[in-house]
Amino acid sequence: MCRLWLAPLRGVTIRAFRETFAEAIREAGFAGAFAPFIPANPGIRVNDRLLADLQPFPNEAASSLPLVPQVITKHPDAMRTLLRAFRERGFDRADLNAGCPFPMIVRRGRGSGLLRTPDVLETLLAAGCEEMGPGKFSLKVRLGVESPDDLRALLPRINRYPLAALTVHARTARQMYGGEVDRTRFAEILAESTNPVIYNGDAELGHLDEVPNGVAGVMVGRAFVRALGARTDAGNLLRTYIARSQKELCGDVPVVGRMKELLTYWCAVPRWHRLWPVIKLCRSVEELLSLNF
Ligand SMILES: Cc1cc2nc3c(=O)[nH]c(=O)nc-3n(C[C@H](O)[C@H](O)[C@H](O)COP(=O)(O)O)c2cc1C
Description:
Blueprint: E1 3-6, H1 15-20, H2 22-27, E2 30-39, H3 60-63, E3 67-72, H4 76-88, E4 94-98, H5 103-107, H6 118-132, E5 137-144, H7 150-158, E6 165-172, H8 183-192, E7 197-200, E8 217-220, H9 222-228, H10 234-248, H11 252-266, H12 270-281, H13 285-289
Parallel strand pairs: 1-2, 1-8, 2-3, 3-4, 4-5, 5-6, 6-7, 7-8
The protein binds flavin mononucleotide.
Residues 7-12, 36-37, 70, 97, 99, 140, 169, 177, 200-201, 203, 220-223 line the site of flavin mononucleotide.
């Protein structure tokens, strides 16, 4: 059975977003969501602030969407500490980010930089499977850093671990978020992985029949966020998102910044496209709310 997963988009598919758009997420048929990454560093202090994105919602209906927390790290002990905190908060699954393409992260050996240090990656997989249990830890990867063959070369080592899933964003880190996905390389990974594979980076909602045969799931991020902007209730939902963010953040600047981040996805929709030049100039919540959306 092919399941649909909401992709983690840091700064976008955050808690307040998942709560505000819970109904739309459910309507779109998502089986669950992966939360944006949380860093695990040595000497990590795991407190409510670090885990704020994972807090349950007061509204039970919004809470019903299963959530998989994600860690970004190269430190097995720090990761274990964070995974234990996930478990203490009731999460029985966790995901490791080996896909983040940002050069500073990659240079420091985290995110897709883990593809360059197979021994570290293996230590993390062993620790993750031990902490969470077999079939409860997963890995999200790119095809490679520079070369689309990195992941394939590592697959025999990844196959040693009983993962819940191997999510493959079928681009290299070098490609960042643009350019063609490599379906041929993805098909090779799918054929050779002993773990269930989730396809990511290519899917438009409504075209799930076009995904490669044999995938266990499809992960969709940007296409879903863009589609929200075309809903007739998008304006009302945006107002709710603003109000919720005002309660959570301090001052107008971060709230307006968060809304602009979302609206960069919506501005391809004619209604938002018209407003976009004005939205870009907004500095306060009052200015934003005064627009006729
Ligand atoms: C703004 C932004 C933030 C992202 N944050 C994360 C993250 O926290 N963890 C992660 O594994 N991937 C992250 N990604 C990658 C997405 O989860 C996904 O792999 C990528 O966007 C391709 O899928 P899509 O075309 O369906 O969006 C991020 C992508 C974007 C554009």
